What we know:
A: two-stranded antiparallel sheet; 78% helix; 3% strand; globular; B: two-stranded antiparallel ribbon
Amino acid sequence: MLYETVLYLLVICIFSLWHTKEKYDSLLTFFCTTFTILIFAFFLMDWRVLTSDTIKTFVWDSSPNSNIKLDIISSKQNYALVFPFFLNTILALLNNLLFKYETHKKAMFSLFVFNLISFIMLISGNNFIELLTFVFMIDIFSQLLIFNTSASKRYSIYNLVADMGLFLVLAMLQGKLVNLDVSNISHYYETGRHRDFIMFVLMFSLFIKFGMFLFQGYWLDLKNAKFHTLYFLPYLSTPMAALILFVKLYPLLVVSPSFVPFLDTMVVLSMLWGSICAVVNPQIKEKFVYCNMLCVAFFVKIVEKADFVWNISLSNILVCFFVFNLCLYYLHYEIDRGHAKNQLAIYSILTAFLMDLACLTIHISTLVSPQNQWWVLSFAFLFLFVVSHLFVFVMPKLRNKERIHIFDIRTVCVMFLASVLLLYLGYPLILSSWQILWVLAMFVLLYFIHSMHLMKKYDFFNTRLKNMDVLSFVYEKSLISPLKHAGILFNVLVDFIFLERTLWPVISVFNSFLIKAYRHITRLGIGYYFLSTLLGLSIAVYFFYR
Amino acid sequence: MQAGLLLMLIIFLPLVGSLFVLSSKDNKQETFKNAQQVTLLTILINISLVLILFSVCGASEITNSLVIKYSWHFFSYIKLSFGADILALIFVLAIQMTIFIGVLGIGKEQQNQKNILFYSLIYLALLNGYFFALDIMSFYIFFTAQLMPLYMLIGLSLSEHQHKILVRLAFHHFFGAILLLASCIFILSLKQDDILLINIDKLHLSYRKSIFVWGGLFMALILRMPVWPFHHATTSVWSALKNPLVFLALHILPLSGIYGFMRCWPLNIPIEISILTPVFQALCILTMLFAAIGGYAYTNVGNKLSNYIFVYDLLYLLAVFLPTDVIKFNITYSVFSFLLMTACLVIIQAHMMRESTQEDVGIKGILCHMPHASIVYGLFVLAALGLPVSAFFWNNFMIVSEIFNFHLYIGTIVVICMTLAAISLLQSFYVLKDESCVLSPKVKIKDIDFLAFVMLIAVMVSLLLSLIKPLWFVF
């Protein structure tokens, strides 16, 4: 059962905290990782044999208002929800074990497993306090995993704001319902009101945690952190905590008529902004962040379209996204560190990526329905475009360092197979809608141009097409240039004119006015003292006669 | 009887300790060491006595075994009653621990240390009396008497030209004490036996007398709180104080006002003054918002912490005014954690200020040179932000949920203020941890003492245990 899994993980985690000599750290981490994999195997077996829901409850504190409990509910749905986080953690642990530049292996192991325990408790919990506790715990562990003060500064402030938003909503529910059980939130609207207010506060909190459009700033700060701490963060930290809350607290959201338009707007903006910035931005880490913004935004929408019912396909999609991050990271690492001669490693990374893409396509295809077909196609188009661009971005480094001809045919194969899989996915839809056929045709055309460009770039045609610049021209003029111009325009409009020149100066002026007013009123002079007293009394009189 | 004796011991032991402190030699270095050790020992004994009392006082209600009564010789109808329940004991324990932390954090180079320690022990004794007072007369006596050593403490720490702000503070408190005295005289004029604090609302008062009694009581207690228009006196002294022990002593004063409200304010506000409730709530909220914005706007880390404390004082004030009894324990547990956390943050900040002044370096990035201080400061900041590191977290949740139950807008503003206060505290932490301001290796910044580090870790562990079970130390 889930509580046994938690217990075993807790034991292994405490064991990993055992202080050893530095030279034994790797050995201890190896044993601990092996045992964690074993626990994962038991978890899978338990999941298979589970027939009915079981609840293990620990009463944390008996308050006059309501009992604060720690519930661990073992149900099929919870197992399915825990699965991707468990598997992603295992992959991260293996990476931690094998990655030779990681110096704090044991500490990282403990943090990963504590983080996983927090996820399991968050998923299986049924109490407001339990939810808040483990959301906050995940925040703390995420910051510890980042392990960089300048990178985590805005991360912690943004997440604190999001947490306080969540705190507000849950405190409001507790005040009205006088019950801490999450299962009771659907009854809120029988007694309470303010459905739009609750929805907006909750969604803002979740959007901040997801790192969606307008709230991506703190993710960009992570470029100061090491890449090997960046790859797991989108799928093992705060965005996923937000996702679990999204699934658990949906009864509070769906009752507001503004929910779907609000979500759609944010998802569309995030997907577009993520795709554009992933192409336009010159830094690999920023590209990586924006690419994940695109994936997370799509995933949120697909969960909403699945009526918030979690299934194994959703779990697998999360794992695929994580593996994609891992592939990209390793490819960048292999090339950036001058390990490009290790062609086998690069080839296996590309193979893994290809398999990952195939899996992703298969699992997304199981979720396609007439309600979400446009979302899926848009995502497929944007994702493959961004991914291929990311590979194009990484590869020239290799080409400059080592003139080897390994990428040409394989990269094209990746793109070709991805296109075939996408066609497979789109096939039932083509029959139902002509518009989709058009979109698909455009997509195939773009990919054809893109693939040809790759072939050209990596001398696939060698001498025959050596002097033929038409492909580069088409690629640059039809895809990259418009996007770059659009990106610059958006940057100027949003970042410069709206944010830097309008919004922040207004806030700054208001802030400095408040500071001046505050300092004047709180000066030590007797005149200021009487002024502040008079002001306070006048407020009192106003509210009395109001 | 044994419990009664313990109660009296807790009140009078600090007075005995203060005499020992006073009798220490006037040799500068030695005096400080001796006086500090005596003070710490006295408070430690007091803490252990409070823990013993906890085991005697099993129930939350005041038990007969814990009530002591004394009659005055000339006015035999006036009886002084002392007693303890869980609420009072938690407050007393928190205050002993706060002063203990403050005494550990006091710097060797600061002036008048012997006198400060002497008055802090007297202040502690009178505070203990205040928290154990059950009747209106003993409540009034300790309510007023505790101000004297506090003024001495503040006076010893302020420079000469800053004394006018102390006069202003004293004026406010004096005004409150006069009003409370008038209320007490009115109540005593009814010539009823045993006018306990919890029975004041059961007295039959005429309309005018009722206004006078409740108004006087309300004003006396509210004048201790930093609520607009009376906040100025407290905050100006707060910002001027440099000594961490005196700062903490003054920090306890608003919380003693909160305790006063918990003890004698009726659940439903008397009809005679209930008309003023929205006015009071509006003032509280405005002050809170102002304090939160002020904390956010300030660049000084000390001011950020003061404003953070200011915000939470007002949160507790709003909470005790709610017409419900269910969050009484939540407020108490939260205050317990709040006092300990802020005490630890104050002494670490004071240490950093001292080091930065001595070495003539800025405060930015100073924590990068203090590994021990960095660990404990980080942990206490996490706890103070409201993250699940102590009971502060879920008790605040319960308090805020009750505020929401009665007032949606007030609840929303309260959460906004809490968020701003938490952000300002987090900002100050990042300023202190700023890695870009690394000092040259020639500058030797001293970390906190190992003893202080161990003690702070022990406090953190006790706070962590309070998350699992608030009264984990009661067997």
